[in-house]
Amino acid sequence: KAVVSTQSTGVVQKRVRCLLDAGLKLLALDFDLTICSIHTHGLYLGSEEDLRKLLHPEMVSLIKDASSHLQVAVTTFSRQTQLIDNVIRRIAPNVVVRGDFSCDTTHKGVPKEGKQTHIHSVMDEVCKKGERYRADQVLLVDDQQNNVRTAVHYGSYGLVFHGPSCLSALDRPLPPSPSIIPCLCHS
Prior knowledge:
Elements lengths: L8 H13 L4 E4 L18 H5 L4 H10 L4 E5 L5 H9 L6 E3 L17 H13 L9 E5 L2 H9 L3 E4 L27
Parallel strand pairs: 1-2, 1-4, 2-3, 4-5
Helix pairs in contact: 1-3
């Protein structure tokens, strides 16, 4: 049974349009407490189906629609990347999952802070397919403010996720240069 979103397709499409209009090419999403409503601590023992039921429907809708237009990646510190990959691939098969031990970047000088190794690992993968992404073409959505601040420090956009209502920050044009996207809603 798939997670069903209560959001209209039009709202999600508008959000994706705002991301595209800002020139974004990579949407990097944290898993625990961002895509998923709980923190698994990398120790989730339930089934994939049970984990799928814990996903925020709004995030499921965003992943489905955005993955048709942008590279979407899950950036997580979890060691359960295979479980997360299996759950996410049921939503959108072209999403890349990068976890605690799956971020093998080949570039020297990649910052180790925050989710930078995860993001650069995805950038390396798409580079092998002939595409190049710049840091200012990346949006990291994460519940941890320090990860978002680090992404912004290194030239990407960031959105601190306090709950699904924060996605409404993507309903309007993004700031002209990478920064933390203000979210006035807390859920």
